[in-house]
Design a protein that fits this description.
The protein has 309 residues and is mainly alpha-helical. It folds into 2 domains: 145 residues, no CATH class; 99 residues, no CATH class. It has a two-stranded antiparallel ribbon.
């Protein structure tokens, strides 16, 4: 390792902050309003810190061993692009497994790999990282040396405070992300139920409708919803006429729609921030659900209209 561990920790946070700053400025410019970009609530994007830390460990010795500047720049550029791409792909995969959603997606851009990474983004990564290693890193080395000159204790204290902040922020963000994933699963279930109810209403006979509803009841455990805890043959629905049965099922569908809308509009602040921080987040099972949720997020305009009423 070309740097002491305490210095590497400091660099990790510096590059995490610079990555957050870059992402926030770009996203805020696109949205024309401030967007706190990133998974964490604080001003850090650890994916940048992780990627650049790997580059510092693996590529600083390479940079310093090459006398030809042109060759050194080319080697560092391609190496940085590859390392950044691998890091981004792995973190995207891990986050999807943990939180049940694709937090960023490049499927809308050509030359992507499973929507997780993209050639154009990788080239940008390589260019930025090369700029950092050749231009910014020497300045940061001077800053680290200045802090270190005040005593190693000072640097350790700074690192400890930053790590404690990161752990706390990561714990909160993890809980928020898990709740977003759970809500998406609930909305997905309700969406399938509504679709199933609508399908059943369109069936030609009462017997077909009842069979379809029975399958839904078994699949989604809807005994309480149909008020038949002790009656597996659904006697209440059996006693209804065809038109009444269709109206009853339509009422069930409307009730679930109302619950879905309430769940989406009652989104808490940290969940709303996280959803808006990732405009290309994707719910693999049914992308329309996540789009619908974002459209129902309470906004300042919504609050103003309510206050006027």
């Amino acid at each position: 390792m070309p740097y002491p561990f305490s210095v590497m920790v400091l660099y990790f946070f510096i590059y995490s902050f610079l990555g957050w700053l870059l992402e926030t400025l770009l996203c805020s410019f696109q949205e024309r309003r401030f967007i706190n970009r990133g998974f964490l609530n604080g001003p850090f994007c650890p994916i940048y810190g992780c990627a650049v830390s790997l580059m510092l460990i693996l590529l600083i010795p390479v940079r310093d061993s090459l006398d030809n500047t042109v060759i050194a720049v080319l080697v560092i550029f391609f190496s940085c692009a590859v390392l950044a791409t691998i890091t981004e792909y792995l973190i995207s995969w891990i986050m999807e497994k943990l939180f049940k959603a694709r937090w960023w997606d490049y499927s809308h851009i050509k030359f992507n790999i499973n929507g997780r990474v993209n050639v154009a983004i990788s080239i940008i990564w390589g260019g930025l990282a090369t700029l950092f290693l050749f231009c910014l890193q020497p300045l940061l080395d001077k800053l680290a040396a200045l802090i270190f000159s005040a005593g190693s204790t000072a640097l350790i204290v700074v690192d400890a405070v930053l790590i404690a902040f990161l752990i706390f922020d990561a714990a909160i963000s993890y809980i928020v992300a898990r709740r977003i994933g759970n809500k998406l699963e609930q909305l997905d279930k309700w969406n399938e139920l509504i679709h199933g109810f609508v399908e059943s209403i369109e069936l030609p006979t009462k017997e077909d409708i009842l069979r379809h509803i029975e399958r839904l009841a078994e699949k989604y455990n809807l005994r309480k919803a149909f008020e038949k805890r002790n009656s597996p043959d659904m006697p209440e629905l059996h006693t209804l006429t065809l038109d009444s049965l269709r109206r009853r099922i339509a009422d069930y569908a409307n009730e679930i729609r109302a619950k879905s809308v309430k769940l989406m509009t009652s989104t808490r602040y940290l969940q709303k921030r996280m959803l808006r921080a990732f405009p290309y987040m994707k719910w693999p099972r049914r992308p329309a659900i996540l789009r619908d949720w974002k459209e129902h997020l309470p906004s300042k305009n919504n609050r103003d209209e309510k206050e006027k009423k």
